[in-house]
Amino acid sequence: MAKSPSVATNAAEEMTAFCGQNSLGQDVERILVPEHSIQDRIRGLGQQIDEHYLGKDLLLISVLKGSVLFLADLMRAISIPHEVDFLATSSYGASTNSSGVVRILKDLNEPIEGRHVILVEDIIDSGHTLAYLTRLFRHRNPASLEIVTLLDKPSRREVDIDLFWTGFSVPNEFVVGYGLDYNQKYRNLPYIGVLKPEVYQFTSD
Ligand code: IMP
Ligand code: MG
């Protein structure tokens, strides 16, 4: 398994640029992973996936909605033929904590039996979502089942997850951008940033 690089701590230029032009950026305390680092890392992941799955029937499964930007860029970083499918699980709503309860809102369109499957996730936090999904999919008898996540928050883990590829390890802070949301907003920020606590501290749930 590849080691994940640590996140950039100083991205002041990018911060200034986006906070000036984009009102969503004003709710961001600091940038954890700038746009160019995300793209560099995804290119590397794409090459590793190319080598690992050469000649195999590869299916990428995106867990909606947080992983769609990652999926779109990862697909273009992978040069071998592959297909995609989508799955939706229940979200946290307006909370920043996982309930540990996972509900399937939209199942896959196609069977995965005999196929080489990679689950594409935005972030692994407690691990409950992925623990549930891997159990569910193993019962459907794929040829192989691995996980690629853009972000990993290892300090929050409540259940063990076997991560095959990780983009970046991040500290225990609530992050948004590049597909990740708070209350369905901030997904369109091009970087990963830490949300200012005052944005969510008055939300109950
Ligand atoms: P888990 O089940 O606790 O591992 O949580 C997985 C899901 O929670 C992720 O796929 C995200 O959708 C969401 N999530 C966890 N941490 C964050 C965060 O810091 N920002 C945005 N979404 C998060
Ligand atoms: Mg997710």
Task: Describe this structure as you would to a colleague.
This protein is α/β, with parallel strands linked by helices. It has a domain of 139 residues: Rossmann fold (3-Layer(aba) Sandwich), CATH 3.40.50. The chain contains 5 helices and 9 strands. Strands 4-3-2-5-6-7 form a 6-stranded mixed sheet, with helices on both faces. The protein has a 3-stranded antiparallel sheet with strand order 1-9-8. The model has no long low-confidence stretch (mean pLDDT 88). The structure holds inosinic acid and magnesium ion. The site of magnesium ion has 5 residues, from strand 5.
Offer a quick outline of the entry.
With 205 residues, the chain is an alpha/beta fold. Helix content is 26%, strand content 26%.
How would the blueprint of this fold be written?
Elements: H1 12-21, E1 28-33, H2 35-52, E2 58-64, H3 68-77, E3 82-89, E4 104-106, E5 116-124, H4 128-138, E6 144-152, E7 165-169, E8 175-176, E9 192-195, H5 197-200
Parallel strand pairs: 2-3, 2-5, 5-6, 6-7
Antiparallel strand pairs: 1-9, 3-4, 8-9
Helix pairs in contact: 2-3
